[in-house]
Task: structure prediction
Amino acid sequence: VLSSSRDFDFFYFVQQWPPSYCDTKRSCCYPTTGKPAEDFSIHGLWPNREDGTWPQNCESNSPFEESEVSDLLDKMEKDWPSLSCPSSDGVRFWTHEWEKHGTCSLLNQHKYFETSLKLKEKANLLQVLKDAEIEPKNGKFYSVETIKDAIEKGIGYTPFIECNVDPSRNHQLYQVYLCVDSSATDFIQCPVFPRGRCGSKIEFPSFSSSSHDEF
Ligand code: 5GP
Ligand code: 5GP
Ligand code: 5GP
Result:
């Protein structure tokens, strides 16, 4: 039977920083349900192996069904918005994440989305950073170590920080990866980190004004 045995060791729980997704050459499109709050949002919960590889698209016959998550939709719109263009209500993004990663998770659809929403509540990254006086502000730069240390102190585990680049080629905080045990209940130390590194000083941009019109 497809997907009945576990072909991964842990999950990456990946949260994105919407202002950084939008502040690139490609730009972004706000969801049809409205501009997202200035908060981290969910990208996905990704099964991964300790050797750094991962399974994906584990079941071809398991389409995303909105009706299976109807009780979660309000929260998904708020905490898991899609910022890609053209504007959407999120269903395409959720479909993509479910089909690519969720079908390998051994969780059913409802549990996959419910678990992800719960993990975001458990890891309040924006608050943890604010507690360390790291706040979104255009034109201000932080070392990656400072950001990692703040998250480690607040959550208890070392994150992986992924950066992207704005149109002026500043490096900025784009995604935060935390690791979760294979039953998707608790955060754990990451057995392996993704590849890639940020610049030494990175921006944590704000939505409120873009870097070019601020000054
Ligand atoms: P990118 O090329 O932007 O790093 O990744 C493209 C896609 O590949 C991601 O959206 C995600 O679906 C998948 N991916 C990238 N890196 C990882 C990883 O380390 N683990 C898993 N499970 N998926 C990944
Ligand atoms: P990279 O070579 O930078 O690790 O990965 C480039 C792209 O190849 C990733 O974004 C991802 O789409 C794909 N990729 C790399 N390693 C894996 C893997 O172990 N499994 C899968 N499914 N895709 C991978
Ligand atoms: P991945 O394959 O890396 O898990 O997911 C990335 C895919 O989801 C891309 O095809 C991307 O266009 C789409 N997508 C839709 N909305 C978003 C969003 O808000 N953030 C990211 N990172 N990808 C999104």
